[in-house]
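Quick start: read one record
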Amino acid sequence: MVNWKPDAFACRTSVLTSCASLEALKLGRQIHGYTIKTNLYKDEFVNNGLIDMKRSFDDARRVFNNVPDCNVIGYNAMIEGDSRHENLSEALDLFREIGLKTLTRAYIFAGCVVIYVYSKCSSTFDSRLVFDEIPEKDIVVWNALLFGYTQVSENGTALKLSRTSTFMSKTGQTHLWH
């Protein structure tokens, strides 16, 4: 028998990811206990792995709330998890919270995820509210919104937006798919 003790990298990349994929809650909780016992819980990648794993089991909020100075990866994991479990107001609250902390590429990506989720729920009104909150809209943000409108057959709205977008007037593009 090999006496192998996983380090932070192994916990994050293999063990926690496997627990989430296999929906192995009991084993995941044991790994969480191991990270506390060995002080691996202080590693930001392990924390993000725990959030990512536990979001599959509606248990991620407790981990997330106990992480000091959670980074963008942790926020994105929570936003995605809340979105998958249809906790859309919580996902939007987290999106706003991270937006107050930093305006990064990851923040914009998180906004696109929220726009996409609202669109999949046929809530283009809410998608547009999130879109309007993103201060720097690039082609990815515009595509997320336009995709949402076309998913619910609001093609006229999508076409009108694509013709009048500030993104296209700034870049001189004639359409969004360059």
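The chain has a mean pLDDT of 76.
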